[in-house]
Each structure stands twice: as structure tokens, then as C-alpha cells.
Amino acid sequence: MTGLPPTALPPIIVLVRPQLGENIGKAARAMLNFGLIRLRLVAPRDGWPNPSAGPAAAGADIVLEQAEVFGSLAEAVADCSHVYATTVRKRGVTKPVMTPEAAARTIKADAAQSAIVFGPERSGLDADDLALARTIITVPINPEFGSLNLAQAVILCAYEWSKHVDLVQPTVEELLPPAPQEHLDGMLQQLTAMLEPLGYFEPAKRAPVTRRTLRSILTKPAWNHLEIRTFRGVLTTLSRKPRP
């Protein structure tokens, strides 16, 4: 992990009284996308395990399988040295307030276990929940519409954490090299042979300009051999007589 102390630990994600299995699954998906796998649930409304969580997790099964369930937030964070509570409401808060970015930097520099706590979908964390935290995490948000869903809130914090670890980037398909000129010429000849009987290059005095323009259009994309083969297959199909 880049820049991390040897004993630095990824934060635990704690969902307090989550209401819907689908939202737990989506939060798990957000976590795994950015390298977090430790999930704790506090008094999930519909119990646990929840059959609706799996499909919503879209393959993040390891997060759900290892999820731990607690009866209270105090129990869920008892082994954590630093607890961060997420909320969009800062009124009356006397604790330090950080953005997800600043919190991720602080967690990165701390060798002890940290937890990031998220509240129920409808109401968020209550005053007693916030009292257990040492730091508040919040984001600048539209004051007229401060309504992040649970997975969105999780993904904001997980993404900021991911900036400090060496995640493997998704494989990018290698671009095929441009096709040889002879392949392009063959495609142009095939197309020209189809167009000539149909009078496309008439009047004859305009034919050279029309041919050059057509070549210019078809050479701009820098076709690779697969694209040329596909397009020539289209031309071959168009040249056939219609099926009865």
C-alpha cells in the first residue's frame, strides 16, 4: 500500500439500523469496488442474512459473507480506536468535522483500527450515535437537497480511501494497430465496385473528386484489420440479392 504505515488497517464500514437488504447489498458493492471488505451491521431492520442483499451486491459476496451483526453501535465499534460518523447535518456539532478526503488521509496515517459509521436510510445517525464518534465526516452538498442514499455515502468515503492504496486498475483492452494500406485499399475497391453500377460516381467529371472524398472519409477512423473485415462483411451482405 502506497504511503501506508506497515500496520495501517483499512477502515471498517458500519451500517447502523439499515432498513433494506438491497441497500446493504449496494453498500457492499461500493465497498468492494474500492478495496474495503469489513462490514458491520447494527440491528438491521429485517434481520440478517437478508435475501435481497445478494443480488444488489452484484458479486460482492465476500463482503456479505463476512459481515458481522451487533445489537448496538457501541458494541460494533468497541475495538476501534477512532470512529468517524457520517452526516450531512452539522448544526450543533461540537466535534471535529472533516471531508471524506481529509478523513481518509487521517485514517491512512493512523496505525489503529478505524470505523466509518453510516446511519439509517431515512433519518441518518441520531444524537446518541453521533456521540460515540470522535470525528464527523460530511461533504459539501446542496443545502436545498441534502439527500445522499446509503450506497452513495459509502462510495464517497471508500473512493477517498482507495486513493491511498495500490488497487489494480481494470484491464484496458489493447487497441489493435491500424490495418495495412492494402487492406484499406481492398475495402475501398469493394465499395467502389458496388457503387459504380448504381451511378454513384456520375457525372464522370466529378468522379475523381468523389473518389478522393470517399477515400478521405474512410481513412479518417484509422481502421484496424478487424474493423475492415467487419465492414467488408457488411458490403458483401449488401451486394447479395434479397432473399425471397
Q: How many structural domains are formed by the residues? A: 2
Kindly report how far apart the N and C termini lie: 65 Å
So what's the overall shape? elongated
What count of helical segments does DSSP give? 10
What structural class do helix, strand and pairing data support? alpha/beta
Strands in their spatial order, largest beta sheet: 3-2-1-6-4-7-5
CATH topology of the largest domain: Alpha/beta knot
Total beta strands: 7
Query: Which radius of gyration do the C-alpha atoms yield?
Result: 29 Å
Helix/strand order, N-terminal first = EHEHHEHEEHEHEHHHH
CATH class of the largest domain: Alpha Beta
Largest sheet: 7 strands, parallel
Low-pLDDT stretches are 1-6
* Percentage of residues in helical conformation: 25-40%
- What CATH architecture of the largest domain do you see? 3-Layer(aba) Sandwich
Percentage beta strand: 5-15%
Q: Average pLDDT across residues?
A: 86
What is the CATH superfamily classification of the largest domain? SPOUT methyltransferase, trefoil knot domain
SSE topology sketch:
Blueprint: E1 12-16, H1 21-33, E2 39-42, H2 53-57, H3 61-65, E3 68-70, H4 73-76, E4 82-86, E5 97-98, H5 100-109, E6 114-118, H6 127-131, E7 135-137, H7 150-162, H8 181-195, H9 207-219, H10 225-238
Parallel strand pairs: 1-2, 1-6, 2-3, 4-6, 4-7, 5-7
Structural features, described:
- With 244 residues, the chain is of the alpha/beta class.
- It has 2 domains: 12-162, SPOUT methyltransferase, trefoil knot domain (Alpha/beta knot, 3-Layer(aba) Sandwich), CATH 3.40.1280; 181-238, no CATH class.
- 40% of the residues lie in helices and 11% in strands.
- It is built from 10 helices and 7 strands.
- The protein has a 7-stranded parallel sheet.
- Strand 1, helix 1 (21-33) and strand 2 form a beta-alpha-beta unit.
- Helix 1 (21-33) runs parallel beside helix 7 and helix 8 packs parallel to helix 10 (225-238).
- The longest helix has 15 residues, at 181-195.
- It is elongated.
- The model is unreliable at 1-6 (pLDDT under 50).
